[in-house]
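hey so u asked for the seq, here:
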Amino acid sequence: MRKDSRLSRVLHVLIHLDAFEHPVTSDTLAKMLGTNPVVVRRTMALLREQGYVKSIKGHSGGWSLAKALGDITLLDIHQTLSDSSVFTIGLTDEHTECPIEHAVNRTLKEAMDEAEGVLLKRFGEVPLSELTVEFKAALAKR
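ran it, structure tokens below
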């Protein structure tokens, strides 16, 4: 099953942006992520709409943070990237009249909703600045 790594990748980008002293181009970010600059621009545009990053045009332009990482949570970024469930497990709807399907779907949905609630609550408690602690410690050792 294919994993959706957008959240992880965007968090990676935001932490890098915090470390850079100048704006970073979409091309540079794309090379870092191993993806196309168009994908980077689309994703960064979503973050810009929410006020987390800003873009600067021109020769020395690029992307930079518009908010401090301490003012952005994991939940903020997750919600910016997707309004769908964090789980990719799907419920079946092939036998809508079957009582077994109803029981299975109800039980799975209840469990996934509960687990997702716990996860999203935790996401809301983690500012992105918390993610930089390990990174900054590793830089200090160099």
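Residues 6-141 form a domain with the Arc Repressor Mutant, subunit A fold (CATH 1.10.10.10). The first strand starts at residue 53 and ends at 56.
lmk if thats what u needed
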